């Protein structure tokens, strides 16, 4: 049997799918990403006059009805999973394993609340009791079901015929990576031979935009949308919201080989560390991020010298980029001056709940294609965080092992190590 250095089953990737603001599918997304194309644009799906931030990496050509975050997130998940399962060669509607899916927090959105208020019969002066009374009517049952956290997972599980109870999770910006970690752990424990791991987020809506803006987390460089996200640059001022979905089919490597599947790479290591320092800010000493990186390397049975590229969390916020650079330097030391690092978020924005899964696909494509995507808009390096940022143009390089970082609001830090082959 194929085991890793810890005596556990190796976890292979046999299928990948992705949808972002720069493309639907791996081929289109990868071509745009390595060409340095941005998907960040002025928001057109709702009025933005008077808002401090008016840009995002929205996916406008995917239509759902009613339009809301749960419906769009579900659709993006389905599109990504269709591509991933199709590549794997497994049954599209009878998937032989479990579903682990990262979805954004779910709550009723403004259009639905306004409709409920009108249904109360007192739209001029609506109380919470009025809204509850209207919501209890049978005509709103579909909305009730839609705005339950587990609904997206249930519907995706039904679509693909996954086995067992689907697992929904939401750990902020690390969610997509955590979904992959849960799939890896289930295969290692022998609970399943296959796992469908998805990260999805279609939550660019007025409430989300305003909330992040109130936290002073978003870029306000609206005049040139495709230049606003600039990770690791001195003139960065915040992240840009993005939408996306990504799916990985994970399998016990021996089972995958036995059925003749093409192995695209391996998930070799997972590391995580919680940070109770603050609801949004990172611990000043960077220890949670440092620990997550070290645990991922140890789990993979690798040393820092084995990593050939870091797919950075790289949000473009002043604090996060500084913390990530400090954490990486603490682990990799002087190598950071020559260890390539880049951030996909410079082009697709921060896809939030989906980010870890989207970046996992990009990490595996980097290994498979021998090309490192750039960090665009990198014109003014920050002297306080000297790194080998791949600037503006993709770099051809052989990469055997990639570290992908996901550091979430609220302190959930998850790091993954991918490889072409186990060492």
UniProtKB/TrEMBL annotation:
SUPFAM superfamilies: Thiolase-like. It holds the Pfam family ketoacyl-synt. Pathway: Lipid metabolism; fatty acid biosynthesis. InterPro entries: Beta-ketoacyl_synthase (IPR000794), Ketoacyl_synth_AS (IPR018201), Ketoacyl_synth_C (IPR014031), Ketoacyl_synth_N (IPR014030), PKS_Beta-ketoAc_synthase_dom (IPR020841), Thiolase-like (IPR016039). Keywords: Transferase. The keyword Transferase applies. Residues 8-420 form the Ketosynthase family 3 (KS3) domain. Signal peptide: none annotated. PANTHER family: 3-OXOACYL-[ACYL-CARRIER-PROTEIN] SYNTHASE, MITOCHONDRIAL (PTHR11712:SF336), POLYKETIDE SYNTHASE-RELATED (PTHR11712). Belongs to the thiolase-like superfamily. Beta-ketoacyl-ACP synthases family. This is Beta-ketoacyl-ACP synthase.
């Amino acid at each position: 049997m194929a085991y890793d250095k810890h005596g556990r089953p190796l976890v292979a990737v046999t299928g990948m799918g992705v949808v972002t603001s720069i493309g639907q599918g791996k081929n289109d997304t990868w071509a745009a990403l390595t060409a340095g194309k941005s998907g960040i644009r002025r928001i057109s799906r709702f009025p933005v006059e008077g808002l401090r931030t008016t840009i995002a990496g929205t996916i406008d050509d995917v239509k759902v009805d009613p339009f809301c975050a749960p419906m769009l997130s579900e659709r993006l998940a389905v599109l990504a999973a269709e591509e991933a399962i199709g590549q794997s060669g497994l049954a599209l509607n009878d998937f032989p394993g479990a579903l682990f899916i990262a979805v954004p927090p779910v709550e009723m959105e403004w259009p639905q609340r306004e409709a409920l208020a009108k249904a109360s019969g007192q739209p001029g002066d609506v109380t919470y009791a009025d809204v509850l009374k209207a919501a209890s009517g049978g005509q709103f049952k579909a909305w009730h079901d839609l705005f339950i956290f587990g609904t997206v997972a249930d519907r995706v599980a039904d679509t693909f015929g996954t086995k067992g109870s689907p697992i929904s999770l939401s750990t902020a910006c690390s969610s997509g990576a955590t979904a992959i970690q849960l799939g890896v752990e289930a295969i290692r424990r022998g609970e399943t031979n296959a796992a469908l791991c998805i990260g999805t987020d279609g939550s660019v809506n007025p409430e989300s935009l305003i909330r992040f803006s109130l936290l002073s987390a978003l870029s306000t460089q609206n005049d040139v949308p495709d230049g606003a996200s600039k990770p690791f640059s001195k003139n960065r001022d915040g992240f840009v919201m993005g939408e996306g979905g990504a799916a990985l089919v994970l399998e016990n490597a021996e089972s995958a080989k036995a059925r003749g599947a093409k192995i695209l790479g391996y998930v070799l290591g997972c590391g995580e560390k919680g940070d109770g320092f603050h609801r949004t800010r990172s611990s000043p000493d960077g220890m949670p991020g440092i620990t997550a990186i070290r645990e991922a390397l140890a789990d993979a049975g690798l040393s820092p010298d084995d990593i050939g590229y870091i797919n950075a969390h790289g949000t473009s916020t002043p604090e996060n980029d500084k913390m990530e650079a400090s954490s990486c330097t603490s682990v990799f030391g002087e190598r950071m001056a020559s260890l390539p690092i880049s951030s996909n978020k410079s082009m697709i924005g921060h896809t939030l709940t989906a980010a870890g899964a989207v970046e996992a696909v990009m990490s595996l494509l980097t290994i498979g294609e021998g090309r490192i995507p750039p960090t665009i808009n990198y014109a003014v390096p920050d002297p306080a965080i000297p790194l080998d940022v791949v600037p503006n143009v993709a770099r051809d390089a052989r990469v055997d092992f990639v570290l992908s970082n996901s550091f979430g609001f609220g302190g959930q830090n998850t790091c993954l190590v991918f490889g072409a082959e186990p060492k």
